[in-house]
Structures are given as structure tokens and as C-alpha cells.
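Board notes (copied after class):
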Amino acid sequence: MSTAESAPSALLGVRAAIERIEQVNPALNAVVVPRFEAALADAAALDAAVAAGAARGPLHGVPITIKECIDLAGTASTFGLPARRDHRAERDDPHVAALRAAGAVVVGKTNVSQALLYTEADNPVYGCTQNPWNPARSCGGSSGGEGAILAAGGPRLGLGTDIGGSLRTPAAFCGVASLKPTSGRADTRGSGSIPPGQRAIPSQNGILAPRVADVIRASAVIFGVGSALLPAQALPDPRAVDVARLRVACYVDDGTLAPSPAVRRALGETRERLAARGIEVIDWQPPGVVEALRLFFALLSADGGAGVRRLATRRERDPRIADLAFVTGRSRGTLWLLQRTLDLFGQRATADFLDAFGHADTDHYWQAVMAQMDYRLRFLDALRDARGPFDLVLCPAAALPAFRHGASRVLGTAGGYAPLWNLLGFPAGVVPVTRVRAGEESDRAPSRDRVPAAAREQERDSAGLPIAVQVAGRPWREHEVLALMQIIEDDAGYR
């Protein structure tokens, strides 16, 4: 039998993925732009090419989905904005083109948050996506449709974007793996990021997959794209990394929102398993994450909300976008009065972060960029701790398990665990390790402050939901991040 005849059939794999999507998607609403007939034709063409003697690509016949905001020729990229319903992309995004050239077959596009701005996949164009573990829960966002359909066993890979946790939060909420690259490694070149043209915190394309090995395989492909200004940075082989020689810092609570009991247990158990391998993990605390989170919001709101208001009229805005447009468009004086009122009524968690908003001038933006640069140097200094220097950081992927639908309106990013690494520009990935156990849902005290109160409510009845840990590394050292993620996955035995 020839090699071509014995090779796995792309057509069979793609057909199986489509059948699974058709089975689960009516309940999930994750794949919102199906491409089934075209995908079957693409798979058949790949099989025919191999039968004729063509070389198999590294992703030959692998069925994938891509986030709706990422361009795929002939399909819509609406970002959940009604005004863009009729949009059709003229060509593939470069990272999509690279995946397809490697043999991947796009079977559809997946749901997003409106304008990619909150941690749910729900918008006026496509509606709401359910979490496959519990339909009352969100799948996260903004790459939420990707997380949901991958966790439900549809495609093998997903391509999403991340500017503040948009890859890693859905992966954590749904129980799959994902990697956000170093800033500049896989730029989205826009893809609906708000505000348009903002480059202090550039959005990155990245891979989600049920297994870390597939994240590695597909990341190697998209890292080969590069740009006109930045040559492609190849991914070194994570299997060649001697993780035992790396020093790992670990923190559980970053000071922004205390993590749930299951999150704390996941970190503790992961540390124990790493220690059993001889990998040194040392308690450490990142500097000023509350300050960093304020800076994150200040940079992304430096246009005073003009980008949001330009993209969607009041009538077209999702309520979560309407809240954002209101806050970012207020004057400093108005926000000061709002802060005092919130403080008076015990809403300290919300009031504290209003300091980040209310500036819409170039001078304040440049000051924020300088503060970001200073914070990055301060963070690197902290990694040179006397017990270090540290190569990797182990921390929560999220403070909470998957939210109930609509809860992101109060909780926002639910702390600084994901956005911190976007502000820094460092690579960070998540890998699922456990699920919430019955009886450990919450030990959070009641509060009249609506943010911790909402966190306590999300923890209630959360048993069975996935919990992930996060691994971050130094810039351009994704191979080290992925190497530790692979070890964590292997030892956790999560299914």
C-alpha cells in the first residue's frame, strides 16, 4: 500500500468534525458562520493532492474553526456589530492563510462578544453562546465560541485573538488549552480591536485546542508568518526544553480579586506535581497588579470611547458596551462625582478603577505609555528576585470558574490575572487541570460591594466547571511556556 493510500483521510476527519458540530451546535450556538460544503471540498482536494504525490502539510486535513472577527475570504467579519452584517472579507487573514497552507481545513467561524470587549460570547448579530459544561454559564470571551466548540469535541484547533484575556478566559471557562503570544509575534493587524490603531497593547492571534500538543503544532505555523516590519520568529521545539533547570515563580492572589477555593486548590496541586518532578516552584508576588490593571484600562480607553461610539449607535450597542461607552465618555469631574457616590454606597471595587478613565488627550496617553514602560521594567526587576532569576510564572488563569450569562457586566475581567500579561506583552498560556468539586464552591464572605458579591454568586452551584492554571514567561520564550504547560497537562490527567 502506498504512503498516500495509508495516510489518514482529510475528508473523513473533516466530515466527522462537521457531524459533531451539527450535533452540538444547536444547543451551543458556537459556530455562527458554517462553512461545511466548502470545507468538504477543501478536504477532498487535499486527499486528491496527496494521492497524486503532493507532500502532506503539518496540519494536513485538521478541521479548524476561526473567530468571527478574523478575515476568511468570502465570509463575514462583523465583530457582533449590526452595521457590519453585510461585510464580506476579500482575502484570508495572513495567519488563516498560513494554517490553510499547512493543510488545515476551516469548517466555520465562531461567536464573539460585541467589538471583542467583554468576557462573554454574546452580541446582537448572532446571539449568545452557551458553555458546554452548563448552559446557564458563559463560555467566556471574546473568543468564546472557539472555547465552546472545541470543548464540545467539534474541530481539533481554533484560531482566536487576545488583547486582555480573550483567548485564555474562554479556554479556562471551557476546559481547553491556549497560548497568547508575545506582543508583536502574531499581530492581529486590527481584527476589530478597540480603539482602532491603538498599539500600546496590541491584540495577538493565538491558538486554542483541547490538547497542548496541538497548540504547539499550530502555533509553530502561525509564528512563521511575520510582517513587513518584524521577521517571523520561529518557535523553538518545546520538547527540547529542560524544564527542571528553569525557575518558576508562583502566586495565588494578585490583589485585584481573591480566587475561588477550586482555583487555589488547582495551583496547590499543580505545585505538588511539579515538585515531584524536581521542578522548583517558589512563592512570589508580582508588583502592583492593581496599579497595572488601572493602567491597562487607561491605555485602552485613551480615546475617550470614540472608537466604540463610532462603531455602534446607541440602539445597536450591547448593554455591556453601552456601560463602557458611558464611562469612557465622561469628564474627569463627572467621574469624580460618580466615584464619591459609589464610595458612599460601598461600591469600592468599581469606584477604585474609575481613576483609569476620563482622559482623552494625547498628553495623557503618552504619560500612560511611559508608565507602562516603567511598569514593565519594574516587573522584570521583580523577576530578578534574590531567589531567582525566574524564568516562568505560575498563577491562576482566572479568579473564578465560568460566569453566569450577563455577569461580565459587573465583573469585567474579574481581576488582573489575564490582562496583566497583555499590558506587559509577555507570552501566557492556560491549561485545564481540574473541576470545581462539590462543597468547595465558595468561601467568600457576603459583601454589599457588588463586585465581590457577584463573584460569590458565580461561585454558587459551580461544581463540575473546569478550572485551569496559567503559565507566563519572558518575551519570545513561548517554547518554555509551552514546555511547562505540557508537563502540567500530562500530570493533571484532566479530561
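Comment from the instructor: The longest helix spans residues 362-383. The mean pLDDT is 94.
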